[in-house]
Design goal:
157 residues
Length: 157
């Protein structure tokens, strides 16, 4: 299947997408049903998810910095090295996994089933308009090395 670059591909920084999703989640939670798991359960679960999310994202950034390659998601063509070690053995996109986990933490904190649409929307958007275009460019740039890496490691988790 041939992928055609969309006008949205690689245009909006992923943190902006995450922030837009978080904002939408807040408004959904304020106007929809809450599941009311209570103050004892939701905050510790949200904090745990947030810590794991921050850890994933930071590990991804630090790995890119160690390999002196770009972390700019709008210009993956500037990538100098294919990073496959560290957290990149678990996920091809740990920074995006981190953002998705932060959104999931926010949904848990908000205690609203409707807020779960935020992480789902983020994953769908980022996969279509960020990750797939990045992977096309990485495949062109790194060829067989990227193909082998893609076979070994999942896109998300």
């Amino acid at each position: 299947m041939q992928f055609e670059m969309s006008t949205l591909a690689l245009k909006i920084p992923p943190p902006i997408i995450a922030l837009a999703c978080a904002t939408g989640m807040y408004f959904l939670a304020e106007n929809m049903l809450h599941y009311g798991l209570g103050p004892l359960w939701a905050p510790p679960a949200a904090i745990t998810l947030a810590i794991i999310g921050i850890g994933f994202a930071l590990a991804g950034v630090l790995s890119f910095r160690q390999h002196h390659t770009t972390i700019n998601p709008l210009h993956p063509e500037n990538t100098r090295h294919l990073v496959t070690g560290g957290v990149y053995r678990i996920s091809r996109n740990p920074m995006y996994v981190g953002m998705a986990l932060l959104l999931l933490a926010w949904a848990v904190y908000l205690e609203s089933p409707a807020a779960l649409l935020g992480p789902i929307a983020f994953i769908a958007y980022i996969t279509r308009f960020q990750i797939i275009p990045e992977e096309i460019l990485l495949a062109q740039h790194f060829g067989a090395d990227f193909a082998a890496y893609r076979q070994r490691v999942r896109r998300w988790l």
